[in-house]
Predict the 3D structure of the following.
Amino acid sequence: MYFEILKSYNVHFYDASRSLEPLKTERSNLEKIDRKIKQLLDYITNNKLNKGEIVSEIEELVSNLNLASFAQVTSRKKVQDKLAESDSKIKELIQYVSLLQFNMKKFEKRKPYFVIEKRLEELEKLTSKEIEAEVRQDKELLFDPKYDE
């Protein structure tokens, strides 16, 4: 009865003719990841670390996580696999670098590894965020399930 009165006076609470656009995935985490790994590689190059194993592991990580490598991937599953593999590699590297620091006596020698560890931790956070975004897309909770490249 009350709605009839409102309707007779042309009172509306929403515009039924309008539609909302679906939320789009923000791919900025991949761009941030790309910047972070480039910073890490530049730091290693500029400081000429003598630990060849760390350098080669980080170079492998750079080749796996750069934006160009994601541009070649065509399925969401492959993106998720690539991110998960990189995330576990980052965690291993953080533990390894932390152990190296622990075994060094002089702070001057430890400092570059401290910086590397912090950059790896930042990279780990970004990859975790991207993995979470991929999972949300898979479950179609918030976003259109079509993968935007």
